[in-house]
Amino acid sequence: MWLIISFVLGALLLGLVMWLRARHVSLTWYEWVLGIIGLALLLSTILFATDALGETEPKAATMFLLVLGIPAVILLALSWQLTVRRVNKA
Amino acid sequence: MSKFHSMVSRRDFMKAVGLTGAGLGAASAVSPVFHDVDEFMSSPAAEWKRPWYVKNREMEDPTVELDWSLMYRSDGIWTGQNNPTQDYFLGAEEGAKRRAAAAAYTANAVQKNQSGLTLRDRALSSGNYMYPISFIGPVSSTTPESLGVPKWQGTPEENSKMLRAAMIHFGAAQVGMAEITDRVKTKLIREYDKDASHKKYMFEDVPVGYEGADKLVFPDKVQLYDFAFTHPLNKEMFRSSPSSDLMSAGNSMRYSQFSIIQPRVQTFMQVLGYTCYGYTRPFNGAIPAIATATLTGLGEGARNNGAFISPEFGPCVGLFSLITDLPLEPTPPIDAGMWRFCQTCTKCADECPAQCISKEHEPTWDVPKIYGKEDTTHIPGRKQFWTDGIACWSYKATIGGCGACMGTCTFNTDVANIHTVVRATLSTTPIFNSFLWQADKFFGYGVHEDKEAWWDMSQPTLGFDTAHVTMGKDY
């Protein structure tokens, strides 16, 4: 599973960098930080939630989705929206 | 300068060779060099792997504080699981009443097909108790004399390595060693055996110990050693507690396995030219196994002082402790932060249906009275929490068995990566202990409602992952 996630993640990051270059957009330092933290949380959510399901602890899996997954989505969305709004404003 | 097909100049290449050579030289200078297997066996660096956060302590100084001046040799019959002992504290009438209630509960539960106590659960639990074992063990016809060779001669380090490898082959998971010092003789070796025959453990001036009609004899002038070992138990079965024959099946597997392991190691020792003094039955060792397992660094004391926690396997482990005249290298107690964590966490005490585990947060030297009498089931001299063994053993039978304390324990976890993060965190950063205890409850870890789900689970052989700890991992 992690091999597939690595490929998807690599392709997405490559696509992001190419898209940013094509649009001549550079991210600010805090947009990078928010994005990286959000991504780390998202990967942790996938790891811990699938682990918990593997050891037949469905409540723990749900809690990981709640406690780590939601902040991950919020941070990634925040990073994305900050960038988009800044670019549109310019 | 001609580079031809290479991007590396001759000068750069020679510099790299020089640096590599220097690096290899430095590495070989600090790395141990072994010339043969015997030398490798005697190396202290070749001990078994443990998680990085498990720290060794000084000899005879485990994390549960000890005061040896308060201790005395125990009598094996003074335990909560012994019926006459229960009668002493409860009164014969109440003891008989509880035992009748226990038999009625189980019989009724099987007839009702109660989850955790169905016919198949009872059948699984009943098959585990076989113990054709004895203090001296089987007499092997193969000895150094019969083979025409001198008895095995190795350094204590070599012997420890050899014994650990043999014990793991025979069915143990981890092995710790200690010397039988005068302190151990006068404080830890039981005065009487736990068996109904109630034989006295004695030391006599004989070259080899023996079992007499009313005594179990060790040689007094021969230096003896003990080795404790773990037999991990099925974590999932303990999560079906309470009222579960599945838990009983998971728990009793250790005794069934031990009845095979003990004769194996006793024969192994005899062929080497040494003696291994065993249990009289799988429950009856000369030294309380939690004591030696703690002192030899297999794990730490727990809030329930009838239990024990291994950093690698958690609380669901069976412990055994055997005595030998084969010289062994002692292993020290450890600190993995688990005993410190137990002083914050009360998950086992909260879950206990008999409410027999202390909920205090400050351990004490004082053994509280039970049922208005001095608690003779515990030996003082340990600063810990004191479980009422009579309440535990007499009550659990009346609800079809219980191991909820071990099943729900924060350390009773599986292979998920988060558990290693948690253990490493609480080992190094106790300020998070309270948070981690609450998080364990919040995330829903602990005993399971659906007891019969175990039958549909994919479980490892004997119910525990033998390979995990060989890589220095916990679970």
Describe this structure in a few short sentences.
Chain A is mainly α and 90 residues long. Helix content of chain A is 88%, strand content 0%.
Number of domains of chain B: 1
Major sheet characteristics of chain A: none
Shape of chain A: elongated
- Helix/strand order of chain A: HHH
Q: What is the helical fraction of chain B, as a range of percent?
A: 25-40%
Number of strands of chain A: 0
**How many beta-strand elements of chain B?**
13
Distance between the termini of chain B: 59 Å
Cα Rg of chain A: 15 Å
The end-to-end span of chain A amounts to: 40 Å
Protein name (chain A): Dehalogenase
Transmembrane segments (chain A): 32-49, 61-82
Keywords (chain A): Membrane, Transmembrane, Transmembrane helix
What labels describe this entry?
heterodimer; A: 90 residues; mainly alpha; B: 475 residues; alpha+beta; four-stranded antiparallel beta sheet; 18 helices; 13 strands; globular; transmembrane (chain A); Dehalogenase (chain A)
Describe this structure in words.
The complex is a heterodimer of chains A (90) and B (475). Chain A is mainly alpha-helical and 90 residues long. Chain A has a domain at 28-89. Helix content of chain A is 88%, strand content 0%. Chain A contains 3 helices and no strands. In chain A, helix 2 packs antiparallel against helix 3. Chain A is elongated and about 50 Å long. Chain B has one domain. Chain B has a 4-stranded antiparallel β-sheet, sandwiched between helices. A 3-stranded mixed β-sheet of chain B has the order 4-6-5, with no helix packed on it. In chain B, a hairpin with a 6-residue loop joins strand 9 and strand 10 (308-309). In chain B, helix 5 (119-126) runs parallel beside helix 10 (245-272). The longest helix of chain B is centred in the middle third of the chain and has 28 residues, at 245-272. The radius of gyration of chain B is 25 Å and the shape is globular. Chains A and B meet through helix 2 and helix 3 of A and loops of B.
